Amino acid sequence: MTTPMVKFDNVTKSYGTLTVLDSLNLEIAPNEKVAIIGPSGSGKTTVLRMLMTLERINDGVIYVDGDPLTHMQKNGKLVPADERYLRKVRGNIGMVFQHFNLFPHMSAMKNCMEAPIHVLGLSKKEAAERAAELLDMVGLGDKKDQYPSQLSGGQQQRVAIARALAMRPKVMLFDEVTSALDPELVGEVLNVIRKLGTEHNLTMLMVTHQMGFAREFADRVCFFYGGKIAEAGKPDEIFNEPKEERTRQFLSAVLEAN
Amino acid sequence: MQLRPLAVCAIVFFTAGLAVSSFAGFREFIPGLLQGAAVTIQITVGGCILAMVMALIAAMAKMYGPLPLRWLAVAYIEVFRGTSALVQLFWLFFVLPHFGILLDPLTVAITALGLNVGAYGAEVVRGAVNAVPRGQWEASVALNMPRALSLRRIILPQAFVAMIPPWGNLFIELLKATALVSLITISDLTFKAQQMNQTTFRTVEIFTIVLVVYLALSVLITVGTRTLETFAARGIARGR
């Protein structure tokens, strides 16, 4: 049995009295592609944000590649992680956001070079080579010197993917990455993700509303409802013969809207 | 964008020129008043630089510093915003010597005005930093950047653009406040004017020139900040 790349062990997240995630247990194998679906407010984005350390967890432990993410071993006990330890483990994870969050004052190239230079300590030349290679990979080789405001939403999102990949993460998180895009731009971003899935060894976790894509791309689909995984399984099982009534309702509502 | 202040500038200088040439009497006051204006400019520039440094330090300390530093920053901001600039000048000039600290008047002037305007500036910096979208912080965390690095490379450069217009206001406030330093024996523009007025009683000419010089200087600041604003906004293409 291999170590799971990501493991949520009884993780709970709440804001005051509102419990967003209720003792979540989830293991994701290396290289596995997991799609997270569910109605809004079901806690699916929170899963990614906790893993990226953008949200503190209230209880439980998250493990990344066997190491606890939010806690560290000290005298045989798990204590909350300090900043230094957090940064070490966090380096394994990359994230792409719904609203791209590119740095508006930097060109596409500089966006992809910033963290490799200042965080990984790459030389300017190495970082530039890596950035150029990745921008080529996402099909933006001719837009390297453009600023985010000069790019379409789809292009910006592809730069954001290249920027995250430049840090060489083992786990990539995609948080509704096509939700802010015009419909005709969704395809180009999904194509890049598809390509990543086949050409790179990456564990991927994506929150998505693109049911067609989830079905075709994911190894496993998790349906979140009310802060819990209501149902999980292979895409065919979830989409063709959902066991839970809530899953069925959600899927029919989504398909109807399309 | 920059045409309007330039036009105002032109009109001001034209009017001033006209006034000077049509009243021969104006001329004799010009050299003396320009000497005073040079001192005023010196204090304004020095004060502005100190104000920007103090504002940045105080804002960072208030937002991200450890608790004692945060208190210190809050105390600084509240004291210097909450008391009159004139009293601050007097305090540095007349009270500090009682504790054995003797500063020359020019140093007092620059320090007092710089600290005063810096306190307002700290809130400008804080507001501009807070106005940078949260997503920029989150993207830096996702790229594993330490906080100081994201602040320096990602957040502050974007906040800088939003800071320029309010800083233009503060620079003009500082320029006008320099008139107070005439009360601590510095021969700035206002001091020179009062001095000349006492010996010649040519009140109309003297204070008209002074008015025009202050106005011209403030228009200069406006033009400067506008130019900087356009320039910076071009560099930092806005968007998400």
From TrEMBL, chain B:
Q: Which CDD domains match?
A: TM_PBP2
Q: SUPFAM superfamilies annotated for this entry?
A: MetI-like (SSF161098)
Q: Which keywords does this chain's UniProt record carry?
A: Amino-acid transport, Cell membrane, Membrane, Transmembrane, Transmembrane helix, Transport
| Highest taxon of the lineage | Bacteria
Tell me the Gene3D superfamilies matching this sequence: MetI-like (1.10.3720.10)
Asked whether the keyword S-adenosyl-L-methionine is assigned, the reply is no
ABC transmembrane type-1 domain sequence ranges: 37-222
Q: How does it sit in the membrane?
A: Multi-pass membrane protein
Q: Where does this protein reside within or beyond the cell?
A: Cell inner membrane; Cell membrane
Can you tell me where the transmembrane regions are? 37-59, 71-94, 106-129, 203-223
What family is it from? Belongs to the binding-protein-dependent transport system permease family. HisMQ subfamily.
NCBIfam families in alphabetical order: ectoine_ehuC, HEQRo_perm_3TM
**Record protein name field:** Ectoine/hydroxyectoine ABC transporter permease subunit EhuC
Q: Could you read off the lineage of the organism from its UniProt record?
A: Bacteria, Pseudomonadati, Pseudomonadota, Alphaproteobacteria, Hyphomicrobiales
